[in-house]
Amino acid sequence: MDASRDGATERIVAVHAHPDDETLTMGGTLAHLVAEGAAVTVVTATRGERGEVIPEDLATLEGSEQLASHRTTELVVALTALGVADHRFLGDAGARAPGLAPRVYRDSGMQWGPGRVPVPLEPADPASLTSADEEEEIADLVAVLAQTGAAAVLSYDDGGGYGHPDHIRIASVARQAAERLDLRFLAVLPVDAEPLPGDVAIELTDDDYARKRSALEAHATQIVVEGELARLSSGPAFPIGRVERFRPSGAPVEPAAAVEERPDLRSRVLSGVAAVAVGAVVGAITTVAHQSTLTLGGAVLPLGLVASLAAVLLLLLGLRLVMVDRFVAFCTAMGLLGVIGLLALRSAGGSVLVPANGMGIAWTFLPALIALVVIAWPRVRTPVAGGTGAPPLPVR
Taking the complete model, does pTM exceed 0.70, yes or no? Predict the structure, then answer.
């Protein structure tokens, strides 16, 4: 992204879902482009009506109609800090398809649906961005791109950065609007995304960084700035980035090498056999150890049982987190539980290694319960925050 092309000022339109997204995802880039002489327009789809509020003294704004006007004021201050002079809300007179009366696209909000998938808040607002006709939204943005003579469009990747329904919708709208006018489209990348040839990296100057930090401070209902860190209503503090990267349309979000691939049949059989063996060994060791106790102050502590159960949990949980699917964890559990079952077999009095006492009974059943819960638990992929690699953004 050059500030000028062939001697002419480059015109760039950045498209975002809510006030504060422009600063969180690419605030430094916007300040940098303005400083380099580019004409920058920021289009915001909603006014963040359903956002959370961090400061206690502003908590009464949350859920009220006043929040939209307050966040609009914050946005004006933030854009002033970044040096952006041209801002438009999608649907307003300056960002509306010809022949259509101005309208407001409202914040859809976000809640966690089945499988921890972000979905719009229920009940859905008929005036919300995700309830509106996407073609109407595309037409509105096309009008902005045509009016400004834009050369490039900046927004999110297809996943919307971190999965917010409004982000996903506006990313689709921005991409399609750019395609219809044959314009360059660049998606902002998470900070931990693997670089690819063709990526555009914007290294912020000290002035760019200072402007970005000031803009973050302006969004006081949403962001707390602490030195070189920022914090949202959810998640820990994260560094205010000094590099912002973008990927032109058509490139994959991650390199091909990062795509998870299922192993072939031979590899699966070998890994399954190895997993059963590992599970059997761990099952034998923990069965021997589970009856160990520690006497402390007259109290007998079941140290061996606790340590053995912890070993089972950590082994199976680690395999679930690392492996592509449940197969290896399942085979490991089968080997482990099989050995425990064999060593527990004997008479009604129990076996030598698994006696019929409280710890023996617990050892007979609790590993199976742990295995069932760990293996059956759905795999949840953590979305990338705000398209910048920050912690998950608040449900808005």
Answer: no
